[in-house]
Amino acid sequence: MEETKVVKFGGSSLADAKQFKKVADIILSDETRRFVVASAPGKRYIEDIKVTDMLYGCYEKAAAGENYEKEFQMIKDRFNGIIKELEIKDFSLDEDFETIKAAFAHMAGRDYAASRGEYLNSKVLAKYLGFDFIDPAGCIFFDEQGKFDWETTKKKLEPKLKSVKKAVVPGFYGSMPNGTIKTFSRGGSDVTGSIVARAIQAKLYENWTDVSGILVCDPRIVNSPEPISTITYRELRELAYMGFNVLHEDAVFPVRAAGIPINIRNTNIPTDPGTMIVSESAEPCKHIITGIAGKKGLSVINIEKDRMNGEVGFGRNVLRALEKNNVSFEHMPSGIDTMSVVIATDALRGKEQNILDEIKTRVNPDHIDIENNLALIAVVGRGMKSTRGTAAILFKALADARVNIKMIDQGSSELNIIVGVEEEDFEVAIKAIYKNFVNIER
User: Fold this and answer.
1) Closest Cα partner for 251 from 260, 379, 243?
2) Residue 6: enclosing H or E segment and its boundaries?
């Protein structure tokens, strides 16, 4: 099979004609970049509005029976402006605009409205590149419950991709069994790219955005953190769960199943190598840790009972109390006579007393309370397993920064250590960890 790369470009990469030209240069510079997944136009400047949000607003007016001519004209102007600046000849979206407008009037649904940004942008990009256009409505499918259906998709998407040399595929959407449009959650173009890469058995899935790969930690907390050159799927999963937002979480699974690596690249600095996401890495870690991530807004239920470790079903009964109240938990560190259950504060709100009463009834604890304003920080890295003293460095870093550790949770894989701290210490703690694991090694 011919070597193939699937490339996905986000909304910032396709926000205007200038960005379109950058994207075209990237695609046409490599013959193996045969399949392109495109997002809707994003913001051109801070105060700008994403086309997807414009479509949502326009549809809401239509659904309410209000006049939306002005809003729809702004959407048309956005795309027509791109076409004009790109000097694309003998091409018009007027027929598509009329179809969309009529569909709005007939209440085609929010998912249909949202998907049209990707649809229209991909048509423009396909014409500009001279590539075929493939509408995912006919080859990416969801089941009756609205879950992505790989088996049905595979039967239609694989032969469709193999029938063309090069093509642009809109991201973000597919169709339900009854033919209506269904979108993935926000950021779903990442998922479409991953699905296309798996279907065509691509050598590489390049995900182009406005950052030069994944950074060790949040640049809003640490000034100019180092980029990560290589990260494994498992490391990314751990970090994504704790708040890393570079790649849509569901986008990892289709390519991971096929063993296809992902390369996060920067459209505006295409010479940067970015970050490679791989199944397993033979490349040694530059630092002991790969990344630092965290999230606020957590609460912890602390339960104490003498000899609870010898009481069969103790943990199950605690969790059944949560289940009865339709609350899931984040982490559950425990000791011989203690158990802590970490829960998102929003999920717990209004149910605190019911849960406490239920736990008391089920396990009769010696003491139980709830602490709020907790933040969790995860230190993740494949290098931690083979390095002695990782935990010591972590705890010393926090102690030196005068951060009190409220809880500690380490996975059996030795891939990560999670610490709980007061929300007010969150940023201080991340800066201290970064300094002691990354800056100190420079």
Assistant:
1) 260
2) strand 5-9
Assign 3-class secondary structure to 246-287.
CCCHHHHHHHHHHCCCEEEEECCCCCCCCEEEECCCCCCCCC
pLDDT exceeds cutoff 60 at 1: no
Q: Which tokens sit at 324?
A: 């009865």
pLDDT tens digits for range 107-164: 999 999 999 999 999 999 999 999 999 999 999 999 999 999 999 999 999 999 999 9
Q: What is residue 62's three-state secondary structure?
A: helix
Residue 282 near residue 383, CB atoms below 8 Å: no
DSSP-derived 3-state class of residue 22:
helix
pLDDT tens readout for residues 26-43: 999 999 999 999 999 999
- Give the pair of three-digit tokens for residue 107: 């209440």
8 Å CB contact between 371 and 400: no
Beta bridge partners of 405: 421
Burial status of residue 203 (CB atoms within 10 A of its CB: 0-12, 13-18, 19 or more): middle
Beta bridge partners of 206: 7, 263
DSSP 8-state assignment for residue 12: G
- d(C-alpha 27, C-alpha 8), whole Å: 10
DSSP count for the chain of H helices, then E strands: 14, 15
| Greatest distance between any 2 Cα atoms in the chain | 80
CA distance to 10, 69, 106, 284, per residue, from 184 (Å): 15, 28, 22, 35
